[in-house]
Automatic annotation (TrEMBL):
<dbReference type="GO" id="GO:0016020">
    <property type="term" value="C:membrane"/>
</dbReference>
<feature type="transmembrane region" description="Helical">
    <location>
        <begin position="473"/>
        <end position="496"/>
    </location>
</feature>
<keyword id="KW-0472">Membrane</keyword>
<feature type="compositionally biased region" description="Polar residues">
    <location>
        <begin position="21"/>
        <end position="30"/>
    </location>
</feature>
<feature type="transmembrane region" description="Helical">
    <location>
        <begin position="369"/>
        <end position="391"/>
    </location>
</feature>
<feature type="compositionally biased region" description="Pro residues">
    <location>
        <begin position="44"/>
        <end position="60"/>
    </location>
</feature>
<feature type="compositionally biased region" description="Pro residues">
    <location>
        <begin position="1"/>
        <end position="13"/>
    </location>
</feature>
<dbReference type="Pfam" id="PF02460">
    <property type="entry name" value="Patched"/>
</dbReference>
<feature type="transmembrane region" description="Helical">
    <location>
        <begin position="403"/>
        <end position="425"/>
    </location>
</feature>
<feature type="transmembrane region" description="Helical">
    <location>
        <begin position="431"/>
        <end position="452"/>
    </location>
</feature>
<dbReference type="InterPro" id="IPR003392">
    <property type="entry name" value="PTHD_SSD"/>
</dbReference>
<comment type="similarity">
    <text>Belongs to the patched family.</text>
</comment>
<keyword id="KW-0812">Transmembrane</keyword>
<protein>
    <submittedName>
        <fullName>Patched domain containing 3/pseudo</fullName>
    </submittedName>
</protein>
<feature type="domain" description="SSD">
    <location>
        <begin position="374"/>
        <end position="512"/>
    </location>
</feature>
<keyword id="KW-0325">Glycoprotein</keyword>
<dbReference type="InterPro" id="IPR051697">
    <property type="entry name" value="Patched_domain-protein"/>
</dbReference>
């Protein structure tokens, strides 16, 4: 059979596209050339060689070897022509569609430089391990000296710690203080106070139905005398007495209970004829509201009603608060009062009354005591997290076992805590008890990158050297570590930007 010369291939500007058209007689293949990029014309469609009619079977003829082959990446392949039998329709090879080259959108503009930077860092770590081992230890030792400025006994002000700095309530309080002044050294008035004053409160409860009898008042009077006789010994040898720190109205200390003071002055006072809430004693009205509980009132008497029975009585010892030096002495006296209160009640051997106490320092001391009781629980939590981090990296294969690596990961988180706290103490950020649980959070978010790096290390080839494996690990975990670090920074920065004082940078405290 004579050889059919193939059609010349299209120019490089014209890239063919094969389409199929259906007709009534059958399927025919057409070659369609797309419009040239340089010319606006479109070449006409030229039919390819139609299939040969069937012939009698016979030995197939061989193809010519000396025929020229089409050149170029866009040239159509030369069809294989048979002598006797046509190619079955179901076995007709599908034409190859040749598409233009398209520019892809690169989305690794951030991942690629990060991977290269981490790969370089990993190579340096693998090539110079001692530098990256000793440098963090020396930096932690230098920054850890900031713990020398950690105050041992610094007062924790609950209002400063748990209230916003620029809250509207504080602005309104400043307005009230500017228009309703107070003077607790000469004219103290509890109703004019816009802030909580230093005080000690005793709640006396009678074992009987009422404490309005001379015997019960005698025990209450002994208790009052024992409290006012307390003295605090200072380091310089001086003493702080109650009369020095008590809030005063003119020349006298504010009485803890007006009716008790009236009975102490006049022991013949008839306690069964007391009017409530105002009792007129010698031409001076005594306001008893808030000083007696469990009351039973009778008929009208004077400016109120007859006080038949009272189950409880309160004694309020107001102390100086406005002057900073007086406030410090008042708190020292309150601390001594709390330490000696149990001894006072045991010494007096009270038989008719039961006494409980509360002071302006009680809430703060309870917060500190609660923090001390929670510390052992935090220690247990630290141990459990460390054990989990170490044992989760255990493998029975001694080559793949990474328990030591996990232990160093936990140590790295501990070094970060010491370095961070030391740096903040160096620049003058005060330490408050509420941030004592932050090492627990730092340990939780600090070991997650360790697991990512260990997982990437297991996927490296054992035949590579250490710098090569480290560079591969760092390049693979670059994006993961970057994302987790950024999210952690944003989360903690949200807390830093809040208006609570314990999370803000304050002026540098005085250092001894």
């Amino acid at each position: 059979m004579p050889w059919v010369e193939p059609e010349p291939g299209p120019s490089p500007e014209q890239k063919p596209k094969l389409t199929k058209q259906d007709s009534a007689t059958g399927s025919e293949w057409y070659q369609k050339s797309e419009e040239s990029e340089s010319e606006g014309n479109q070449p006409p469609l030229e039919p390819l060689a139609s299939p040969r009619p069937p012939e009698t079977p016979g030995p197939p003829a061989l193809e010519r070897d000396d025929a020229p082959l089409p050149e170029g990446d866009d040239a159509s392949p030369r069809p294989s022509v048979l002598d006797d039998a046509p190619l079955p329709e179901e076995e007709t090879p599908e034409p190859r569609a040749i598409c233009r080259h398209r520019h892809r959108c690169h989305t690794d503009c951030l991942e690629a430089p990060l991977s290269r930077a981490f790969q370089w860092l990993g190579w340096q770590v693998g090539a110079h391990p001692w530098i990256f081992l000793l440098a963090p230890l020396m930096l932690t030792a230098a920054l850890g000296t900031g713990f020398l400025y950690l105050p041992e006994e610094e007062e924790e002000d609950l209002e400063k710690q748990y209230t916003p700095v620029g809250g509207p309530a504080k602005a309104e309080r400043r307005f009230v203080q500017g228009h309703f002044t107070t003077n607790d050294s000469y004219r103290f008035s509890a109703s004019r106070r816009s802030t909580e004053a230093n005080f000690a409160s005793l709640l006396v409860v009678s074992y009987s139905d009422s404490l309005l009898d001379p015997a019960t008042f005698a025990e209450v009077s002994k208790l009052d005398g024992a409290v006012q006789d307390l003295r605090v010994a200072r380091e310089n040898g001086s003493q702080i007495q109650y009369q020095q720190v008590c809030a005063r109205y003119r020349a006298l200390c504010v009485r803890p209970n007006p009716l008790l003071y009236a009975w102490q002055v006049d022991k013949t006072l008839n306690l069964s004829s007391i009017s409530f809430p105002i009792y007129n004693h010698g031409g001076h009205p005594l306001y008893l509201t808030g000083f007696f509980g469990g009351r039973i009132l009778g008929g009208s008497l004077g400016m109120g009603h007859l006080l038949l029975r009272a189950k409880a009585m309160r004694l309020l010892y107001y102390l100086k608060t406005e002057d900073p030096e007086d406030s410090v002495q008042s708190k020292q006296w309150l601390t001594h009062f709390l330490e000696q209160f149990t001894n006072i009640t045991n010494t007096l051997a009270l038989k008719k009354i039961e006494v409980v106490h509360f002071t302006s320092l009680s809430r703060q001391l309870e917060f500190q005591a609660t923090s001390m009781t929670v510390i052992p629980v935090f220690h247990l939590a630290y141990v459990l997290i460390i054990l989990f981090a170490v044992t989760s990296c255990f493998r029975f294969d001694c080559i793949r076992n990474k328990m030591c690596v996990a232990a160093f990961g936990v140590i790295s988180a501990f070094l970060a805590v010491v370095s961070g706290f030391g740096l903040l103490l160096h620049i003058g950020v005060p330490f408050v008890i509420i941030v004592a649980n932050s090492p627990f959070l730092i340990l939780g978010v600090g070991v997650d990158d360790m697991f990512i790096m260990i997982s990437a290390w297991h996927k490296t080839s054992l035949a590579d050297d250490i710098p090569e494996r480290m560079s591969n690990v760092y390049s693979k975990v670059a994006v993961s570590i970057t994302i987790t670090t950024i999210t952690n920074i944003l989360a903690f920065y949200t807390g830093v930007m809040s208006s609570f004082r314990q999370q803000m940078f304050l002026p540098q405290p005085k250092r001894k």
